[in-house]
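Example record used in the benchmark description.
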Amino acid sequence: MTIFWTKRAFNNLKSLHSFLNEKWSEKTANNFSKKLGEFLITLKNNPEIGKIEVTDKGIRAFLLTRQNTIFYRIKKDKIIILQIFDNRMNPNKKIKL
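Model output (structure tokens):
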């Protein structure tokens, strides 16, 4: 399986990394990146690890940290990362499921 990032998800990742680096520390940002990398390896090997959020669209969610959920979809031999959502935000700002 190959992992692809939507533009939205990539922008979420950049914003989150910048926030962690500026508001907390470079170490915190690097720890998050490490955790994300480990998750992506696991996801490649077990693409159905996330719980189904929207059955008809095949959207799955995985709680990466207490603060962040990753939404993704499986299409043929691809895993498409749709969004990294900050769980402290308004739930209406989630990707339109």
